[in-house]
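Contributing: when you submit paired examples, paste them exactly as shown. First protein:
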Amino acid sequence: MPIPGKHRRKKSGPIARGILAVGAGGAVVALPLLGATGAHAAEQSAPAVAQSAQQSAKTYKVVSGDYLAKIAAQHKIKGGWEKLYQDNREVIGGNPSLILPGMKLTLGAQASGSASTASAPAASSAKAETKTAAKTETKAAPATASTSAATTTKAADSNSTGWTTPVANATVTTQYHASGSMWSSGYHTGSDFSAATGTVVRAVGPGTVVSAGYDGAYGNEVIIKHADGMYSQYAHQSQLMVSAGQTVTGGQQIGLSGATGNVTGPHLHFEIRTTPSYGSDVDPIAYLRSHGVSI
């Protein structure tokens, strides 16, 4: 690109857009072509870069065991699972926790304002890319630290048999069999644990996930079958991180707490059942204690 004021053109003369010969020795100085050609190139640069960005977006086919946070982490989606969900809301629907095998998600979709950003000079674009890379690396450290913290919590809270509470620092806010008209059975069929939205929810013991999805008043729930034939249920979650058929260990993260379904606020509703179905509940605290969990 020409630098304004660097070269001056004469007001007249047939060589304003051509080659200017100077000096007796026949040396020549090539002047850049000015005017419409440069303007046209600048106008074309933004669509070209925007088209290239669109072509960089990929399509991913959901498989069993996938969840948005996992996909976003594996493919390094800037903005995490929230951005992935935003870009694919029409495909996923209103519940980001429910993605089904076979769904085709777009990875790396560009925001609507990306075309105007693409019109910046190449030097500015390179600088922006450098800042983006630095920002991504900065975000990676807390994520790693969080994973490490979760592992530490699991080790500290699990007993020698691999059984634990469904959330760390477990505090029961509503006891099993509490009575009240708010419950269709006339009593509380599980134990409620204090858990702000986003708290890690974990399997209380080793087993196999028999269902993971939305279940009416229970919202997003996971049900796990254990080796003794009993079932544990974890309801009202904001995000599920396991799928049916998956084997889990005691203390393994299965989701994040929330306030989905019929609730007055975020918490974890936890049940122990003799079958996977509603109405077969037993005292969940007594069951955990029978497995050596101190609560």
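Second protein:
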Amino acid sequence: MIVWINGTFGAGKSSTARELTGLLPDGTLFDPEFIGDVLMRILPDARRAEVTDYQDLPSWRRLVVDGAAALLAEVGGVLVVPMTLLRQEYRDEIFGGLAARRIAVRHVLLAPAETILRERIATRREPGAPETVDVRVRQWAYDHIPAYRQALGWLSADAHVIDNGHLTVRETAERIAEALRSGTAPACDIVQTPEPTRETVASGVLLFDDADRVLLVDPTYKPGWEFPGGVVEAGEAPTRAGVREVEEELGLTLDREPGLLVVDWEPPCPPAYGGLRLLFDGGRPTPAQIARLRLPGPELRAWRFVTEAEAAELLPPHRFERLRGALRARERGRPLYLEAGRPTP
């Protein structure tokens, strides 16, 4: 199990995490900041200059998941993780990656009042650091308060919130320990999709409205929007998998077998294995069916119909290329074979 202690800079995450680790008989501290520090030291100068925050590095997010899983396999028990996560898509990616490894996450938010938070930032000193460094660190913390305010909506709904403004570090850690014992800080509700161990076959289904816009869904467990669909199970026909996934994800039962639009071979890109990606034409749901669409909360956050131009802003590049191929195949009335999203010569 992981206890993820979230909160903006100055909320008291690190000191609380150290105290909580001592309270838990099988607790181990795991600070992802060390991974960020190492990455910023070893990355080429050109890549390092492209980011101002190591959380924006896909390698950091991947290594946090892999490092936490490896450490839990080594020592067992509970990992206590103090780390600010203010971007929901990063939280989704990291927690989704942990869920895929069957690792439960208890998400705790330390949320002192902003006046107290600002006072803590103003009086914070880095041990052994010159005053000029402290000034820069404090300003950096102040600069993140607006982003924290903006994230409070989803954070408060997602995490077990503790107002530690008038609590000591020990009292805060004891509150968390009690929440873990009593179950008032339940495991984060996010889909648990097993990590593939080899190439996979996946079926997606494109659904269209009367304006020929295509329906996309926003997964909670990975970045970027997606098509309704999923991995074909052993012994399952790809068309059946697409129909099943549409029903599971949207509550929509297709009244006909969807027609094939695209077969796309996705090359392996470690740590992903790649495989065959199929897109089918699910037709146009009626207005009444669209009004009844529902989403499984742990798996999908939202759905919407979009134009091709809008899809380019929402889909990762390789998925958008697959969509473009599918739309062209639909216009021409015949399936298209792609490799890495592009037609073969």
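If you have annotations for the second protein, write them as plain sentences, like these:
The domain at 2-182 is CATH 3.40.50.300 (Rossmann fold).
The chain has two domains: 2-182, 200-343.
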